């Protein structure tokens, strides 16, 4: 139980450290030896980060004093969780030492503050106010600086524009001196400025520069097409939709239901960011493609099955390699064969071309050689032990991949129990010679059908078992009679011995008379000695463990226990 508690509270990666451990104490000592050292290293790294942190003035994405103090408090909080606390005075000292030159005067004002008021909260409040005041002052200075940089086109002086130029006012009064010296631009043919100061020329040059930047920006977003494609795939494309992609070297499908045939492979797909994704299989897909007038039966070969993808990709390069031609217009793309016939059409959908395919669902029913992991088979086979899973797969020539993960969390949750009693040797030599019976219940939660109990009857020789679900204990007699008739009609044999405990559902006058009339001997175990009927007790436990584990693994309601056992 202690081992289960440790495993259930750990992530998957650290579990590798305790695979070889056999006891809970050994697990704990190994984890302490590894992670206690790591916590000491973490403390040193956090302390280095605390003292190396720099104050960045508030500008664009920088948060200024607020962001700086917030980072320091976050480091302080993390260190406290690791058992190494920083005092508030140390944090205040770090803040004052890290202030930039334009806030150095604040240190003197802070030192003159009464010691009772020298708290981190007070420092933060006053520092934010001083930073805000300083930013407003700098904005005003910047505005005055920009005003001095304005240049007049008429007189060439700074500080005003042509509209408010004194020279223009003098000219309007009839000054012949200004009229003879009035400037004319050779670019826009307007008066009042020269070519070097022409606003229209500068505007045209800026527009041309922005156009070049836009072109470069477009070229740079081509590499991010995979990211945009993924977003579109999740929102606008369905499972049966295919997107034409000029960057894909192979056709890629993420839906296994579309394949007519598929086999496993060890290939990987290289992504645009340098990462790789494992290819689960390679196969063919039978479909119908729309050519603009009719549906044409087609088949895609060598299609990669990649479940991690969110969209199906139709490779342009693969089509061109097969001798087809692609003719693309503004809103439509056509695939043309060697004879000039249109074989398929793709229409513009947002920024991509969407293929018009219709998957032939009737033919896509045989997915062969689908290799599952050993843990998947363990889950499918009702969480039986891994040795039995391996033997079963080997007997049926079923391939599987992956190593055994000995820590199945659902098994740990559903199979905790007391140690079993030693198994008794079977003495039965034919069907019906000995039948073990036991009633389990009442269970905490009623099943959907209202059952609170289940009755188990198991033949000792064949291990064939039958389970009946009961609403009341009094129904036990009726179901035992049904079982006796079932054995007789199906096997031609009769039950000779029934072994149960001393529960009143088995030891009563009505059932005793039925057994006596049919010549069946009734063996009863001693009171409070369930090991004498251990065959039925163990079978009950196996059924309950399997049911609990299945319900837990799929997050299903507990009132489905009868369906799980059945």
Automatic annotation (TrEMBL):
GO molecular function, one term: nucleic acid binding
Residue span, Integrase catalytic domain: 426-566
SMART domains hit by this protein: ZnF_C2HC (SM00343)
PANTHER family from the UniProt entry: TRANSPOSASE, PUTATIVE-RELATED, TRANSPOSON TY4-P GAG-POL POLYPROTEIN
Purpose of the protein: The aspartyl protease (PR) mediates the proteolytic cleavages of the Gag and Gag-Pol polyproteins after assembly of the VLP.
InterPro entries: GAG-pre-integrase_dom (IPR025724), Integrase_cat-core (IPR001584), PolX-like_BBD (IPR054722), Retrotran_Ty1/copia-like (IPR039537), RNaseH-like_sf (IPR012337), RNaseH_sf (IPR036397), Znf_CCHC (IPR001878), Znf_CCHC_sf (IPR036875)
Protein name in the entry: Retrovirus-related Pol polyprotein from transposon TNT 1-94
